[in-house]
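Incident review: delayed structure delivery

Summary: a single-chain prediction request sat in the queue longer than the usual turnaround. Root cause was a stuck worker, restarted by the on-call engineer. No data loss occurred. The affected request and its eventual output are reproduced below so the record is complete for anyone auditing the incident later.

Affected input:
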Amino acid sequence: MARFDLPLDELRRYRPEITVPDDFDEFWRSTLSAARAYASAVTLSRVESPLTTVEVYDVTFAGFAGDPIKAWLLLPAGTEGRLPAVVEYNGYGGGRGLPEERLGWVSSGYAYLFMDTRGQGSAWGTGGGTPDPHGTGPSFSGFMTRGIEDPQAYYYRRVYTDAVRAVDAMRTLDRVDPDRVTVCGGSQGGGITLAVAGLTEGLVAVLPDVPFLCHFARAVGMNDRDPYNEIVRYLSIHRGADEHVFRTLSYFDGVAFAMRASAPALFSVGLLDPICPPSTVYAAFNHYAGEKQIEVYPFNEHEGGQTYQWQVQAAFVAERV
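Output delivered after worker restart:
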C-alpha cells in the first residue's frame, strides 16, 4: 500500500473540528442508565481446558436492554486476592472464539475478560455466541448501517453499551480489583475501547490499537475498503440520506469519546493503513483529553505492530498497576 494520507508531521498536528450533538452526553447518560436498570448478575461457569496455569470461565452478563452477552474470563491459576484486570474488545466480524487463543494478559498475572460482540463472529476466527435480537431498518450487508436512520436504533449503541457493562461486570468479581481495570482492543475493538474510555470513570489504562470508528466525516469515502465503505454503498442507494446518516454517526465517533476520556492512553497507528486511515486515528489521539502516547508503525498497514505492540502495551499497563 502506497502512502495516501497526510505526512507524519501534519498528522501530529491534525486536530479537526468534529460535530458533536448538543445532547451527546445526555444520550449516553440515559442509554447507560437504562441498561443498568436491568438485573446485573454475572454468571460464571468453570470450563475444562488443557491449560494447567489458567482457570477458564464461560461468562454471561447483562448488556444493552439486559440482553445476555457472552465472554471468556481467564484467571491465573493458584492466585489469591484481587487482581488487576484487562477487558478486551474484538475486531470487526470476529467472535470471542476459544479461550486458549488469547493468553498474553492472563499469563502476565491479570484477570482477563474477552467480550463477544453481539451479532458478530462469523467472518473470521473461531466463532461467536452472542445474538443481536434487535431488528433494524434497511441496511447494507455488514454492521455499519444497521439502524443508521436513528441514533436510538443504531447497532453500535448496543455494542458500546455492552462494552461498558463488561467493565461493570468485571468490577463485581471477587478476584478483580475494581480500581485497576484496563480496556483494550484493535480496530473495531480499538474504537469500542475509546467509547468505553469516554463513558467509564476510574480506568487505569486505555489501549486503542489502530482504532476504527473514528472521524467518520473523513473516513467515509476516503478509500474503497470495508467496513467504512459499507456506508458509502448505503448512501449510493439512499441518495440524499447523508445528513441524517452523519447525524447518527456523530453520536458514535471515537473522537467525541476521546474528548471525554481521562485515563492514560496508549494508541497505535500504521501509516499505510487503508482500513483505518492514519488521519482518523490521529484525530482521536490529538483530541484525547488524558495522558497519552502513540506508537507509530511507518511501514505497516492495518496489522500495525501486532505482538510488538502488545509488548509495549504490557509495559505501559505494568507501570500503572
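Verification: Strands lie at 43-47, 54-62, 68-76, 83-89, 111-115, 176-186, 205-209, 265-270, 292-297.
Action items: add queue-age alerting; document worker restart procedure.
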